[in-house]
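User: Predict Indolepyruvate oxidoreductase subunit IorA's structure from this.
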Amino acid sequence: MAVKDIGTHDINKPLLFSGNQAMARGAIEAGVALVTGYPGTPSTYLIEALLKASDLGFRVEWSINEKVAFEVGTGVSWAGLRSLVTMKMSGLNVASDAFLSVQYSGTNGGLVLYVADDPNTYYGMVEQDSRHYARLAAAPMMTPSSPQEALDYTRRAFDLSEQIGRPVMILITTMLANTSESVTLGKIKSIKRKPSFEFNIARYAKAGPAACVQQHKDTLSALEQFGSLTDDLNPLTLTESRIGFITQGITWNYLQEAVHLNNLKPCTLKLGVANPLPKEKIKTLLSKIDTVVVLEELEPIVEETVLALRAEVDHPVKVIGKTHGPLSLTGDYNVDVVISVLHEIYGDKILRPEVSDDLSRQVQALKVKRLNTFCTGCPHRATFYALNQTIEKLGYKKEEVIITGDIGCTILGMNEPFQACWTEICMGSSISLAQGFKYAGIKNPVIATIGDGTFFHSGIPALLNASHSGTNVTIIILDNYWAAMTGMQPHVGTKPYSEDKRIIMIEEIVRAAGIENVRRVNPYQIKRMIPILMEAISSKEISVVISEAECTIQKERRRKTGVSLKVRPEKCVGLDVCEHSCMKVLGCPSIDRGEDGKAFIDPTTCTACGLCHHVCSYGAV
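Assistant:
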């Protein structure tokens, strides 16, 4: 699909959409006025698709963090217009304070919250099941199983939100977010509303216990109403079989492939709604079968309801799932997982998809070796190289100086060859964690490393806390101008992007926090960088070093001609003789061992950052 087609009015031909793109289209068809969120894979590409499309007639933007995004979306909704807010599962933790409160107060214009979970942690962090938040907040939640449903559910969610007066959650997972299929489009609504907001303290504030309790009652009533309005999204199919399956989200597709392969016709309950669950349909299914398999990724939320309702059925029903096995609480599902369950129920007659050895070899040959390290020419490589050198020059062993890490490209400093970042908790935690180590009485230097996007997201409160207490920590802010790890999204400090917007300078924020020991340096200037780090780490007060250089990928995209460094064969003594610092110390993906045993620089990927030139003892680069 050409991204520009996402807003097309031609609905006569289907288009190939991923789950993210389909949801973006659904928002367009619903007449959304604002789409905002914070980048976090696998949800990032919904907003990316809209930003790359031609003018759509509504506002699309990245917010500073998920909480702010949800609050901005709430303001649009309370003014009577429609808004969509996007985030990954970790971002829902950040937005949860606002989310739970708004769930009680309700909405005016449709407000849809899109959350993407990541079973098997393909994109890092935790295997969080966001369905728990729906239960915690008594929030309606929809779980599409395909890109077509992602589009249809999103479009419908705005109407539902306005009908029940509450935000509606849509949950998909990594596999659905990235899966593509041919999608049938609908007409684009043209919604023109005059923004307004009523004066109603009892609804829009938490005006004492009585008001809060009433808001809770109203929220529960809205959830019950949502269940009635969406009963059609939970289709129950009864057959002659005494075996039944309950699926949530994308697991429906795995079941369909497995039963089609084996020509089975079990009873099925396909759940398109995660909250509230259709208890009467579950009981109806249980009353017709002897064995039920619950297919849901991560937590046994549906299964727990099934186990509770089983007691209301007049005959015993075996429940196969996670509580008593064999299904796992971790990882994601696939067809093989479902077929293994079928094998346990039906025995050896169950067929598995056949994959030839030749095809397997071809697939393996296509795999690309990807190192979990900084990109070629990344300024962060220079920063961590300089940091390790500084610690050594100050007379410390590597294991004697705690370096806290943070979310984003910065955390790649934990991997070889640097192994510099000791910790990773959540956005902005590096600074406050470092403060805690000093409070505990750690005498040696404690260094916090944090990226620019993460600093703006959640690092500023921690900086203020450390500055106010006068904690002697060193904070290195690695500023590459972009939220790079999630796909080069701009933020409030992105200089090449912000011609028409106010650029927020990190140094000004740091100085406004009362920190006087602030230095800004280009990390590629190693001979200047190391003394600055030595001074900062040796300081008896809180100090900040801003390591500033643009993300090389973005810089290279704007450069018209490629430039690369070369190894001088006559000066390179060979990797069997020297300490090969160019490879061991830097871990640059563009440097490898040539056929002659000497270092070789790949000219197609080298960005001429010059770091290998600095570390080579023989001047061979």
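The mean pLDDT is 93.
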